[in-house]
Amino acid sequence: MSQSPYDDEFRAIRYIQLRGQDIANAHETINSDIESLKAQLTGLISGTELDEAEHLALKEHHLREMTPSDTAMHSTGLKTIYSEANQRVCGDIGLATILSTDDLAVVDARIQNHIKEFNDRYALDAWDYAIACGCGLIASMLDLLCVRAPPKPTVSFTAEVDGIFNKQVQKAFNAILPEDLSTKLSDLFPIGAPDSSISSDLVGAAGGVLSPTNHRLRALSHDPVLGIIFGIKDMLNGTCTVVQNGQIVVYPSSKGVTDETNIFRLIARMFGHLASDVNAPSAKGNRGMGLPAPFMGLLRMLEGIPVGSSNFGKQIEYMYVNGYDFRQFIVTSIPMSIMEVLMRVFYVAKQVSLGKGAFGETLLDTMPLRLNPRFRMMLALGYGTSSAVNTGKMYITGNILNANYASWMGLAWNGFHSLKWSLYQRHLKLWAGIEKAELERLQNNIDSIEALTIRAGNLPVK
């Protein structure tokens, strides 16, 4: 039989148990002798004759047993314990040898208690499922009633759009970034090479790589999230990074390297230029194509996924050139933002009312930087519910422009983290918590033993 990696530890524990039994047996013998002395003393008091020599001999014996030496207490090293244990404890040894049935039952009860506490904090209950799916349905209803597909880029810049949320977003953008301000920002914050808009601007590029209608989608320097990174890199190198044929390709640009090298000014220049493109009209004064939705350009890399007679990457480009840009992303984000706020309110109210958590702690559990995996799974359920209804909306209308990009992004992000938690992290966190609690319990026992050792060392030894 193969030896356990903890064989020495098991033998040492068994050896200490045996020594403990020896000490217990010695105590029993001492107690028995003490009881015998008591009986003799009782007889002495009652007038019964007692052999004086026998009494003195017993007294001296017990004094010697109780004060074995004049030396101070000493500790035994671990190597010595292992050596003595290997000599005394023979044969195979395992947990069943050192733990009794009662001991195993106690350990199992402690583990079950840890699991219950863990599930109370991280497992979803019926209320959580109801809140998550209910809020997802509310977001779906808002999307169905208040969100419409984006207008064509060729419509007039001032033409009123359909949809309650669409109209509010249009008014907000037109107020914050009117035509003249977009033009001023574009002139004030030129970025050169990353702003290449036609294939002839790119050295060595074949025709059709970029065009005025798709360059903001294909050039990663115009991504609302990634644009700062790719834009600064391309400005410093005089290049333009595009997604072509499912790959990220870097082309030198005829516009050359920027004349700016200060990193903070480069960041400011990229922010200013991206702001100029958000609500910029076309050269003909139409609505035009603004910035793409976050990561929309990267999704063009998924050309290997077939969608009917087309593929996923081409469908993404179709959406963009037909008006689905950052402005439409903001429109679709409104029902999802309302869903998240409602879900947090209902979750905190439920936890506090049922006495499952304090208000402050529960609220922090819903914050992005301290998101409890339990609430993350609720978000995944909410986004999943909304996305399922949105699938029906696209199917019934036969229009992919009715996609709720924010809902699908939320499902992908929260769904990924929820799966990682369910399949991997949850088990690690559970057993790490059990291990920590048991180590703390063991440390408390060690501290108690050390305290007893100190107290015993202070006892007088004659």
TrEMBL record:
<protein>
    <submittedName>
        <fullName>Uncharacterized protein</fullName>
    </submittedName>
</protein>
